[in-house]
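Researcher: I'm preparing a figure for a lab meeting and need a structural model of a single chain. I don't have an experimental structure, so a prediction will have to do for now. The sequence is pasted below. Please return the structure as tokens so I can convert it later.
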Amino acid sequence: MDGSLVTPAQARVDLSAIAHNLAVVRRHAPAAEIMAVVKADAYGHGLVPCARAALDAGASRLGTAYIQEALDLRAAGVTAPILTWIITPGEPIDDAVAAAVDLSAGAVWVLDDIAASARRAGRTARVHLKIDTGMTRGGATADDWPALLERALAAQAEGLVEIVGLWSHLACADIPGHPAIEGQLAAFEDALAVAEKAGVAGPRVLRHIANSAAALNIPGAHYDMVRPGLAMYGLSPIPEMGDFGLRPAMTLTARLAMVKRVPAGSGVSYGHLYVTERETTMALVPLGYADGVRRAATNRGQVWAAGRRRTIAGRVCMDQFMIDLGDDEVSEGDEVILFGPGTAGEPTAQDWADSLGTITHEIVTSIGSRVPRVHR
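Model: Understood. Here is the structure written out token by token.
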């Protein structure tokens, strides 16, 4: 998108930061392939531009949560391997197989549906078999794992599927030293041993369990491939350990829609939760909870305006919020930064997450579709 686009707000995405962040991941996991996770519109940063930037920066594969995300990438001309992992009954598995999208199977019924689609398409589907090592979400339990392997091997013998991956997901990789990490890695090793004994092994079968936190901080979890998501966008998966040299890719900005002087004692926004203490300049920022600025940021969230941080004044509304600028000189059209890399003193997505008691994943993925993504 043209960086000169004039809108009330923009989410500017620095694609060079994505390249930088993948280089950081590469330094921590030098021997592993990189699957760039671009689910949820690339964590709100823009699916196709970020996928292309990741591949240009050395990622060999892409990861999505849903089939449609993978199909959108194929429709945009992306030919790199893509794995998608959440499949519900009735989804377009036929289309995914036809588009050569890798599919995850963590249950026999999913494997059967994939095999049936492959039979209809007259081509072999590529599957990654998922074992639940302790996350207790998707994936086969240890008790169900042998049956899933048996069914997959039978389908592979028919030429309907090719087993190209064995994988799992860590629940506590972002909590250094948590005992669940060691337990899950041990469970993964057990599952890999069962798979190898059944005849599923070799260099064509990728073993992967590491998310961003594990890629950056748990070398024993790297195996054949790591799956950076949050880290790719420059946000630390373990904030208490610092930023790992990552560079935030997104800067969320808006242009002031109105500036006016108001007297002391003026109640501001719904419920008058903010009342001016003296005559002051109030300014309207045209972003609200419909755009991902959470209502909980009322009288709490900070933005960068007129050279310093300002706290939101009063209730965050659906489309707007107010800031108190005191006697500083500002005009309609002046830029406000909600969050960015922080290099000029502006708040970061981590600051917003800390203020709201959440995680940066939620901050960046919540930015609504009314806010154009401008890629540079």
